[in-house]
Specification:
The complex is a heterodimer of chains A (209) and B (477).
Chain A (H helix, E strand, L loop, with lengths): L1 H17 L3 H22 L5 H29 L12 H19 L9 H20 L3 H23 L3 H29 L14
Helix pairs in contact in A: 1-2, 1-4, 1-5, 2-3, 2-6, 3-7, 4-5, 5-6, 6-7
Chain B lengths: L1 H18 L3 H24 L13 H27 L6 H23 L3 H19 L5 H35 L6 H6 L6 H19 L6 H9 L2 H7 L2 H17 L5 H25 L3 H22 L2 H31 L10 H4 L1 H14 L6 H15 L3 H27 L19 H15 L3 H12 L3
Classes of the chains: A mainly alpha (209), B mainly alpha (477).
Chain lengths: 209, 477
């Protein structure tokens, strides 16, 4: 069952690479939040109940509801146009994301470690690098933020792989999620909306040598 | 115990500074913090290598950097006040409170990160440095500052994610060894049981993540914008003590790698990053026209050299640590001097400045000495450490690397020098001399002290200082 959830997560990445509207990205992020909620419940069987509840609360409240809602609010408030505006055609994006996933599989074949389920490793690496790819290949700042959220989801999957032995690390990951998202979204995106009416990266391109 | 008191004390002082609007209270809170910080430095000096609160242990390297932090913090806070006073028109009690609260938080987080013996704890304090640094970078509340802070926060967020991934891989490496204590000491003791594949991945991610703080290729860019846009006293901290956080973390991680068969591989990674950093610095230093960014790129160059020393091994490790300590004293003096330059010319562009000797003698001498120190010409302290780094590269048979670094350094000194001499001696194109403020020579005194201390420590090191350096080297050898 966990495998099915994780595979859906990878498939959502492929969909994300060809998605055109910002609202589609948001829906995929919500879906990923729910997938992580399910995966947490199924994977972390050895963690005490309070901690498990905390982790699941984070996935569902934070990843699936609060952050997408807030990003949506920012998009509405700043009148951001609904296209993602990629630098490359969607077809090329699809190929690149596929290549990322294939290379994650190839890399995982080098692992000689019986303690770890390789599925987590493959899914986490593909999500991570797809997030990085989304950041460099899309024009708007808001899509950079979404790319970062995808990276965070990938990291969360990886932390699940060691979660049963070291629940402390999963909690640290939650701290990272909340800290970085609040810092990036909460404070600065609001400010960017205030100072810049058009949150396009082209306006933030003057600091250079 | 003292660390606990310090963390709680610094947090309370920082929040009080943030909430307080009264000038006198602000002064006294900052003074209390200075006393607390110096107290921490003195206490840890007396209690070296004794674990505190499970996660902290002041080892020699941590202690050295903590003492350097104590020394640098005092002039930085003093100049922070001068900056706020001079910049009075735009400052409100609120913005002043936020400025000092963020500085106090940044200094404390750096200090605690040095002393942390647990990678996850270090990581948490690195996050806090990002938070406080971003408040400092956005101090001016304009669109350029916003751009600087946006880039800094975003790149740092990605970098701490990378470090977190590295920690996860490290935990996988430990899982096979059956170790569940993730303190640096315990990992180093169990180095022969670690799974090398995971350790390799872990080092790669942790190293890449910390380059954002240390200022190396690939993640150095955010730091440059940050040092440019932050007020100069904050820039002085970002360019010295915050870079040291990156250094100490990479050093501790490398200390684990150095005992495993992966040492050569790790050296290769470090050398590639270091060479590219020196290259990037030389490219920008030769054409740069912004004084603050020029100082920032000089930091990139020095950290590249430090990493080369670390990778070369032998005497290079000793030299690298010495270089870091001396750089911590020299770079802030340049950044602190920058404000006076700005008051004279109201610009940080090379095109608008000149004849600085005529307008501010004491300051001009600091700039000249600072240039000599930062470009590692004798009698600069950095000359000693840089010479030892080159010697170690030679002994390790990295001749080609040594030659290319020397070539790049020549270009850097040329670029740096031509800009500094233009600032000091060439008459400016247009300047209204009646509007130039008179700057008291006393304001340059802290910079003189820092520069002189760097020379003194390099040429006549105290026995205690040498022992600490040698102890720190033992982590690797």
């Amino acid at each position: 069952m966990t495998d099915i959830l994780l595979m859906v997560l990878v498939m959502s990445l492929l969909y994300m690479s060809i998605a055109n509207r910002l609202s589609t990205y948001l829906r995929i992020l919500v879906l990923q939040g729910f997938i992580l909620f399910g995966a947490t419940y199924l994977t972390l069987t050895n963690v005490n109940t309070v901690n498990l509840l905390l982790i699941m609360l984070e996935t569902i409240v934070f990843k699936a509801i609060a952050v997408p809602w807030f990003v949506n609010y920012v998009i509405k408030r700043n009148n951001i146009t609904r296209e993602a505006e990629p630098y490359l055609p969607y077809f090329v994006s699809l190929i690149i994301v596929t290549l990322i996933i294939v290379s994650a599989f190839i890399l995982s074949s080098y692992i000689i470690d019986k303690n770890i389920d390789k599925t987590y490793f493959v899914v986490a690496l593909s999500t991570l690098f797809t997030g990085l790819y989304l950041i460099v290949s899309r024009k708007k700042i808001i899509t950079h933020v979404m790319g970062y959220l995808v990276i965070e989801n990938g990291v969360f999957v990886l932390s699940l792989a060691v979660g049963n032995e070291m629940p402390m690390l999963v909690n640290l990951g939650i701290m990272l999620d909340i800290f970085a998202s609040v810092l990036i979204l909460g404070i600065f995106f609001n400010k960017i909306g205030d100072v810049l009416k058009d949150p396009d990266v082209n306006l933030l391109r003057n600091l250079k040598d | 115990m003292m660390i606990g008191i310090f963390i709680i004390g610094a947090f309370i002082i920082s929040s009080c500074l943030f909430l307080n609007r009264n000038t006198i209270v602000n002064y006294s809170l900052v003074s209390i913090f200075v006393v607390l910080l110096l107290g921490l430095g003195f206490y840890e000096f007396r209690h070296i290598n004794i674990s505190e609160l499970v996660f902290f242990k002041p080892d020699s390297l941590g202690l050295l950097l903590l003492l350097a932090l104590c020394i640098v913090s005092v002039p930085v806070l003093f100049h922070g006040y001068r900056y706020i006073e001079k910049h009075n028109a735009d400052e409100t009690p609120q913005s002043r409170g936020l400025f000092f609260a963020a500085i106090v938080l940044l200094i404390s987080a750096c200090g605690i990160a040095y002393l942390s013996n647990h990678i996850a704890v270090t990581w948490i304090f690195v996050e806090i440095t990002t938070l406080s640094a971003s408040a400092l970078i956005y101090h001016h509340r304009n669109i350029r500052a916003l751009e600087g802070v946006w880039k800094y926060v975003f790149i740092c967020a990605i970098s701490i994610t990378f470090i977190y991934i590295g920690i996860l891989f490290l935990s996988l490496a430990l899982k096979q060894a059956g170790v569940d204590d993730m303190s640096f000491d315990s990992i180093r003791q169990n180095y022969n049981k670690l799974n090398l594949f995971w350790l390799k991945l872990s080092f790669l991610f942790i190293f890449t993540g910390f380059t954002a703080k240390l200022g190396l290729v690939p993640m150095y860019t955010a730091g440059i914008d940050a040092k440019d846009k932050a007020p100069a006293p904050a820039g002085a901290l970002l360019a010295s003590v915050l870079m040291n956080v990156g250094f100490i973390s990479i050093y501790r991680m490398y200390a684990i790698m150095a005992h495993t068969p992966l040492r050569d591989w790790a050296n290769m990674i470090i050398i590639i990053a270091a060479l590219l950093s020196v290259f990037v610095a030389s490219v920008y230093m030769t054409r740069i026209k912004n004084i603050k960014r020029m100082f920032a790129y000089s930091g990139i160059e020095h950290m590249g050299l430090v990493m080369l020393g670390l990778a070369a091994g032998g005497v290079g490790v000793y030299a690298a640590i010495l270089h870091v300590v001396l750089h911590t004293l020299i770079k802030p003096s340049l950044f602190l001097q920058y404000n006076q330059i700005y008051w004279v010319y109201q610009s940080k562009s090379m095109y608008d400045v000149g004849s600085y000797f005529k307008y501010n003698k004491a300051g001009a001498i600091v700039v000249l000495f600072g240039f000599i120190s930062a470009s590692a010409m004798p009698p600069s302290g950095l000359f000693v450490s840089e010479f030892l780094i080159f010697q170690s590269l030679f002994e390790a048979h990295y001749i080609l690397i040594l030659l290319s670094v020397l070539l790049l350094l020549t270009m850097i000194i040329w670029g740096f020098g031509s800009n500094i001499f233009k600032l000091l001696f060439t008459p400016p194109t247009s300047i209204d001399e009646s509007r130039i403020p008179r700057i008291s020579p006393w304001e340059s005194l802290p910079q003189y002290v820092l520069l002189a201390l760097a020379v003194y420590l390099a040429y006549n090191p105290h026995e205690m200082f040498v022992t600490l350096l040698q102890d720190a080297v033992k982590l690797i050898q």
